[in-house]
Amino acid sequence: MRKNGIIIAIDGPTASGKSTTAKRVAERLGFLHLNTGAMYRAFALLVRRRDHRGHDLERVHKLLEEADISFSPTGNIQLDGINVSRELQEPDIALLASELSTNPEVRAKLVEKQREIGKNGGVVLEGRDIGTVVFPDAELKIFLVADPAIRAERRQLEMEKLGTHIPLEELRQQLEERDKRDRERAISPLRKAADAIEVDTTNLTIDGQVERVLELAKQIMAVT
Predict the structure, then answer these.
(1) How far, in Å, CA of 201 to CA of 168, rounded?
(2) Average pLDDT, the chain
(3) Is the pLDDT at 74 greater than 90, yes or no?
(4) Quick one: CA dihedral 32, 60, 48, 152, positive or negative?
(5) Band of pLDDT at residue 8, cut at 50, 70 and 90
(6) For position 220, what pLDDT does the model report?
(7) 166 conformational bin, left if phi > 0, alpha if psi -120 to 50, beta if neither
(8) What is the Cα–Cα distance from 14 to 154, expressed in whole angstroms?
(9) Is residue 1 part of a domain?
(10) What sign has the CA pseudo-torsion 32, 202, 192, 105?
(11) CB contact burial 191-214 (16+ within 10 A = b; e otherwise)
């Protein structure tokens, strides 16, 4: 057993339910919630703020050394100590983050941060390579999937809550582009770990997703 408990790794494509499920599972267990995708988006926001599109690798690598990315005790992503969760929901930031995540130096630096934060356990991490790269020894690995049309609808609702309306078909195309890039990238591609448990969230409520993961977690904690 790790110092603070087990590590729960939740992977899957965009809008499959990772963030809400991971956050609620962490709250129920008293664990830290670590949204690794938010770390890439926070770095993308830093790059964008410097009027940079991410194509100048020398500047990107310099910003990596300057980046102060962390999480508050409540799990909110912080850039230079300021909560930037809301700003990270914009589609252009997500797309830039996906592009930057194919850079080996960017991934290496952020994976290093993720491992340092989660090494003692008692944490729920979500992303695309948690169970395969970041913590391949995680005690529980979940891979969430959902029908693309349902995922696009979920993303549209998220954006409308932020006051932004994007046509459903446009969102679906963005998700498909993101999925393709994540699956085909040479470094840490999106894939299900051999020992991960797949959970299809297409017809599940958030409560149903959370209860399923909690059930699996409690089974493991009962024998560790």
Answers:
(1) 19
(2) 91
(3) no
(4) negative
(5) very high
(6) 94
(7) beta
(8) 10
(9) no
(10) negative
(11) bbbeebeebebeebeeeebbbbbb
In the structure encoding, which two tokens stand for residue 147, read together?
Answer: 């029908």
Residues in the chain: 224
What is the C-alpha separation between 131 and 125, in angstroms, rounded?
9
Residues 6+ apart with CB under 8 A from 52: 59, 60, 63
Which CATH number goes with the domain that contains 148?
Answer: 3.40.50.300
User: Rounded distance, CA 167 to CA 38, Å?
Assistant: 24
pLDDT of 86: 87
Residue type, 224: T
Interior angle at CA 136, CA 130 and CA 140, nearest 5: 75
pLDDT of residue 36: 92
Residue with tokens 């797309």: 95
User: How far is 153 from 65, CA to CA, in rounded Å?
Assistant: 37
DSSP lists the bridge partners of residue 127 as 11
DSSP 8-state symbol, 54: S
Which residue range(s) make up the domain with 27? Answer: 7-221
As a whole number of angstroms, the distance between CA 220 and CA 213 comes to: 11
Tell whether 109 is covered by a domain: yes
| 213 assigned to some structural domain | yes
